[in-house]
Predict the 3D structure of the following.
Amino acid sequence: MALWGIDKHSIATPVLTVGEDPPEVKRYREDFEKDRLPRPSCLSSQCRVQRWTLRWRRRVLDEDGRPLRPVPIRRYRCAKHGEVTPLPECLAPCCHYLAHVIQQSLEEYAASDKPVAQVLCADGPAVVTVARWVAQLEDPATPGRVARMLGDSCPEWRRTLLPAVEAEWPRPGRARPRAWEHLQMLRCLARSLSWAGARLIPASLLRQAWRAAPS
Ligand SMILES: [Zn+2]
């Protein structure tokens, strides 16, 4: 009975705040809208992929756990091999958080000795999620994989890329040695793959370097 008397407008309803796009998402949306996204390649250089439909990543979260507007993803098809749909570099495979959130957690973890529970300690990813991401930096198999990829793309990376990366990101006194070394190698790899100057390690690269299960 009491409920009937309540003015529904006086009941507080949660407001879903949509977060502002970080620069790399803004750039991606512009490229998408202006049709500037490069056509992906397929398994063979003989293949010609055709534009197909669209899909949307509807749940995309920033580092504070705020949702962003859905992100469109262009799908392509190869007549021989089927769907070829590259994920935008700002998104991580099978993960609601933006790729830069994963990178930020790696950077915070590697550059300090603070416990994982204090890495990205906003309202964003859960501690277990961050722990899964940063565990890859401590995996003894990581440097071997990354070094092989670096050897393929830039055999002289220790002489050419590493000094530049170390000049830009000097090692903090409290850095975790192994994690920091692996992070610097990933930064070298990102640069060697023509991401010169880019501060974002593409999610596809993180995944390839780790060969990890989707996180
Ligand atoms: Zn093909």
The pocket of zinc ion is lined by residues 42-44, 47, 78, 80-81 (CB under 6 Å). The first strand starts at residue 49 and ends at 57.
